[in-house]
């Protein structure tokens, strides 16, 4: 049953903002998941994303199984690679790195993924993934061999995001990169949002409630946070339901 994307659309219609907690399988041990997910459940988080730019084979499968034992929130794969596909999750962001020009990350990995996806019930959500420079070299740059878009070239970022929509993608993800020094600017978020009809995800370097609210008021429909929770779980105390 395909309901994850529909639910995102319904939330947007109701003017509800969404928050995804990103769990990187390489940074969490199974033993810590129950406690961590307990905090996620008590917070305003609406989704759990699972993925990393470099993840060991089979790690994701075991981790998602454990996460699902402890939460009713939808678990969405945010994969850096085909090896991160597991049937245990509810959906997958079928990312195409449209800020880059590496065919492997535009179409190649996707063709590779299809035989695996056929064997799952995952809801596949085509997502235009746009990497924007944010103060330091990111893992995504390293893994994909692509350059991020210049934050000063807003017109080009807007056109790139819009191209994703025109190609039929259902979501656009503006990515500053894991642990970005500065989050994507309000101006970029708001200019991109104004040009789109589809939902907008924003992530990378968001570390406080104030920054979450700034992203929402600029136009983000869903904010993703990973590093800030990895570094200090007390951040959840600011985000209690
Ligand atoms: C189509 C399939 C199944 C796979 C390829 C999907 C594509 C095109 C991915 C784009 C490039 C990429 C490597 C994205 C990684 C996205 C991700 C999970 C980022 C979060 O991981 P980080 O937090 O950056 O990881 P580290 O903290 O380990 O650096
Ligand atoms: O880890 P952080 O900096 O929160 O970034 C989240 C996500 O956008 C990374 O792919
Ligand atoms: Mg990370």
Automatic annotation (TrEMBL):
Its EC number is 2.5.1.41. Mg(2+) binds at residues 24, 53. Its cofactor is Mg(2+). It is an enzyme of class 2 (transferase). GO terms for biological process: glycerophospholipid biosynthetic process. Keywords: Lipid biosynthesis, Lipid metabolism, Magnesium, Metal-binding, Phospholipid biosynthesis, Phospholipid metabolism, Transferase. It holds the Pfam family PcrB. It catalyses: sn-glycerol 1-phosphate + (2E,6E,10E)-geranylgeranyl diphosphate = sn-3-O-(geranylgeranyl)glycerol 1-phosphate + diphosphate. Sn-glycerol 1-phosphate binds at residues 173-179, 204-205, 226-227. GO terms for cellular component: cytoplasm. Gene3D superfamilies: FMN-linked oxidoreductases. GO terms for molecular function: heptaprenylglyceryl phosphate synthase activity; magnesium ion binding; phosphoglycerol geranylgeranyltransferase activity. Prenyltransferase that catalyzes the transfer of the geranylgeranyl moiety of geranylgeranyl diphosphate (GGPP) to the C3 hydroxyl of sn-glycerol-1-phosphate (G1P). Belongs to the GGGP/HepGP synthase family. Group II subfamily. PANTHER family: HEPTAPRENYLGLYCERYL PHOSPHATE SYNTHASE (PTHR40029:SF2), PTHR40029. This is Geranylgeranylglyceryl phosphate synthase.
């Amino acid at each position: 049953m395909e309901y994850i994307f529909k639910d995102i659309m319904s939330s947007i219609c109701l003017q509800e903002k969404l928050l995804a907690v990103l769990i990187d399988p390489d940074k969490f041990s199974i033993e810590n998941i129950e406690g961590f997910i307990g905090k996620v459940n008590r917070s305003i988080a609406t989704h759990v994303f699972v993925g990393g730019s470099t993840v060991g084979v089979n790690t994701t499968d075991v981790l998602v199984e454990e996460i699902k034992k402890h939460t009713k929130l939808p678990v969405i794969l945010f994969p850096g690679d085909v090896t991160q596909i597991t049937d245990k999750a509810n959906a997958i962001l079928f990312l195409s790195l449209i800020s880059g020009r590496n065919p492997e990350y535009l179409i190649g990995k996707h063709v590779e993924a299809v035989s695996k996806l056929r064997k799952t019930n995952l809801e596949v959500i085509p997502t235009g993934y746009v990497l924007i420079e944010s103060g330091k070299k990111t893992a995504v740059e390293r893994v994909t061999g692509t350059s991020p878009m210049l934050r000063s070239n807003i017109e080009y970022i807007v056109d790139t995001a819009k191209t994703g929509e025109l190609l039929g993608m259902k979501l656009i993800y503006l990515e500053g990169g894991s642990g970005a020094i500065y989050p994507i600017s309000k101006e970029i978020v708001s200019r991109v949002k104004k040009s789109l009809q589809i939902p907008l995800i924003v992530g990378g370097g968001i570390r406080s409630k104030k920054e979450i609210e700034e992203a929402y008021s600029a136009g983000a429909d869903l904010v993703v946070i990973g590093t800030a929770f990895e570094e200090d779980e007390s951040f959840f105390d600011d985000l209690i339901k």
